[in-house]
Amino acid sequence: MPGPAGSGDTGGRRIRVLLADDHAVVRGGLRMFLATHPDIEVAGEAADAAQAVDLAERLQPDVVLLDLVMPPGPWAEVAQAPPDEPPGISVIRRLRQRAPGVRCLVLTGFSEEEKVLPALEAGASGYLLKDVTPEELIRAIRSVAAGQVYLSAGVTGAVVRRATRAAREPASPLEALTPREREVLRLIAQGMSNAEIAGRLYVTEATVKSHVTRILQKLGVADRTQAALLAVRQGL
Predict the structure, then answer these.
(1) N or C end of the chain, less CB within 10 A?
(2) Can you give the pTM of this predicted structure?
């Protein structure tokens, strides 16, 4: 989250930044601006997702300053991504798996929830909008390089809205079941009788009946058919 100016401790070493943006003018402006800060150096530049992944894996920068929407380049993994997923998110996900020491700081013009949240879920360490002030950009780079998470004020609303909705959403009724009860319910949903379930789990039929009774009570349903339907709807 946003912290005080100069927050972030990298132990006195220079922060190596990879610029990943398909606009040469943007990269050039960022390169000249970052060069005015002695503790930051530009390790490389990428104009598409394929270059971003290749350079990040080879150069191992501290931070990738990454635009979400850029050409994929010759990278098959992007082609396999959902059609509405920005290539930058595929870059974040790949680097999280293959170069976990490289931290991604998104710098983009999109503040919509459907862009912010997938980027953070993919593993981005920060998210900034391109109208960010120069001072905040430097603060964010230093914070992310030091292992912190940095969100600009323009995108925190999306995170808060998501958290609020999650808090309001009712918990799955299956959460009340024990692991054994969930296993019994799964077999009920497969159409097994109590005797068949007993044989599958190596328990007595009386034990299965007890499980079924508790399952019906916890789920608030009248019979095993309703329990089976609920299990299917909940994806069990």
Answers:
(1) N
(2) 0.64
